[in-house]
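Can you please make up a whole protein chain along with its backbone structure tokens because I've never seen that pairing?
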Amino acid sequence: MDKRALKSTIIELKENGLSFQNISDLLAKDYDIHMSRQAVCGMYNRATSDETINKNKELILTTEDIVNYNSIGLSNSNIKEVLDKQGYSITASDIEYILSINTEYSKSVEMELVQKVVRSLRVGNDIIDIERNITYKGICVTSNRLKVLIKLAAEQMIYEQSKKVLASIYNATDDKALVKNIIAEHNMNITMRDIESTKSNVGLGNSLVLDSTQCKILRPKQEISKPEHIKIAVNEEY
């Protein structure tokens, strides 16, 4: 659990009526995070000490929701409506700001959703079942966003199969130049390192683990940074 998530958890548990000692015990039991009662109290007080920080407290509590609602296709105005119903005083500017500083986290959430779609397609789920699998807090993915996720899932599945085919050709011919030529002619975003890592598994019946940073195999190469921990949308001084 990163710092932002820990603060959010402590605030939520305290507002649910738990004492600082109860929170300390729960963190140790459920998360293997060992903080004294005084440390829990200090973190809570620093995060909720004045009016400005109370605003930041709402930003901390809603960052995860905002990113996840955005990932299933909700517009900023729709996100605001949902958060308003939950009692948060979040503005459209707040939502825009949180999304702008959490792009890496957003990418990691998107990749999780893409993997859900990949798994659904592999077991033969239809569009209705896939839609039901892509939800956040009871809200289903929008139809337009689902189409985007399906396209990304297709690219990943094609990437995986392409690696297997190229690895089979490489196994059969041991001709690196031939494989590179095939890659170049089809403008695939696949490297010889990808193929060599797959080569030993071809024919063994092993399922491949997709590299979430490489999914644009039919387009010019494009690097996507790996997701980092959730960034905090507030001043870190507290």
